[in-house]
Amino acid sequence: MPRGGHAASGPAPDPDALRRERPGDKATWTTLPAEGRAGDPPEWPLLDPEGREWELWAELWAMPQAVMWERLGQRYEVALYVRMLARAEQPKSSIELQKVVRQYLDSLGLSTQGMLRHRWRLSAAAPAEPAPKSSGVKAPAKRSSRDRFKVIDGDLGE
């Protein structure tokens, strides 16, 4: 019997791994633009979109992962995810529907695990502005684990 159980078994690939000479690491990592995909979302491919679906559709096609979806022609997969997500958001939606949405998250690279499995990473965003220096007020010292212990003075029955 093959080892591993299923295609996604084992840890996800790590772009910062120390050993890079493994045969399975020959694939390159794709860097996605942190600012997301530019332009309007593609035309909705399914029938009869609902209001919430339009909102999700536009939001998703502005994400960095949308660059790859466009390259791979995944309009239908994204539209089905949008439809399932809109239904899963409803009160009393089924657990099975929520599981399907979770699977779409991974397969479309919307979760951290999905990004790693696809070997996608985000480009470095513009450096954040340095935080202003404090006005001289000292932050409280961190407590150590020893500070949580109390000494109980008493007779131990001797």
TrEMBL record:
Residues 1-46, 124-158 are annotated as: Disordered. It comes from the Bacteria. Residues 16-25, 144-158 have a biased composition (Basic and acidic residues). This is Terminase small subunit. It comes from Nonomuraea purpurea. The lineage of its organism: Bacteria, Bacillati, Actinomycetota, Actinomycetes, Streptosporangiales.
